[in-house]
Design goal:
The protein is mainly alpha-helical and 86 residues long. The protein has three helices and no strands. The relative contact order is 0.11.
């Protein structure tokens, strides 16, 4: 009994104009516009305050590391929201 499956290669479909625009936005440098650096700094400062609280009030553990990593990711995405969408 053969376990082979007959997989046909798929032909990639062309990207839509919206998909091309989305990729361009995601992978293009966005120089800061006036007022944005201050907002980035405010987000980082608040995140640092929360990170400090997490480290002071939770035991060193995988869960603590995960909380800090996810906080970093949240700030990254918040900054990306500003950079990419304004």
């Amino acid at each position: 009994m053969s376990t082979e499956t007959n997989h046909q290669p798929t032909t990639p479909s062309p990207l839509t104009a919206q998909q091309v625009a989305d990729l361009e936005n995601r992978f293009t440098y966005h120089p800061p516009k006036p007022g944005q650096p201050q907002r980035y700094e405010a987000l980082r400062q608040r995140a640092k305050e929360l990170a400090t609280l997490i480290m002071e009030t939770t035991p060193a553990s995988r869960e603590q590391s995960s909380a800090l990593t996810n906080l970093e990711q949240a700030i990254f995405w918040a900054n990306a929201a500003i950079a990419r969408n304004e």
